[in-house]
Amino acid sequence: MALFLDPVVAANLIFDLAILCLGVILYKRRESSLALWVGIGFAFFAVSYILTILGFGADQPILVPLRIIGYLSVIFGLLMPFWKR
Predict the structure, then answer these.
(1) What is the pLDDT of residues 66-82, one digit of tens each?
(2) Is 55 contained in some domain?
(3) What are the distances in angstroms from CA 61 to CA 24, 43, 45, 51, 68?
């Protein structure tokens, strides 16, 4: 299995993991569920980039549901403050 190490994919993976870590840290410090849901969403993006680096390219059907779940997680987290009122 050959690795596909595109600089853009690698940079996106690094930023996704950074956002995931910041979301978890902010959740632990302030119990911000918004930060946790955004972090979870970016974790799904990170998984899709890891699969891309491992050689499972964009033609694989698993990447689309992973990214959709990631976007839905971020949207859900951003909408949560509106539902708490």
Answers:
(1) 999 999 999 999 998 88
(2) yes
(3) 29, 18, 14, 12, 12
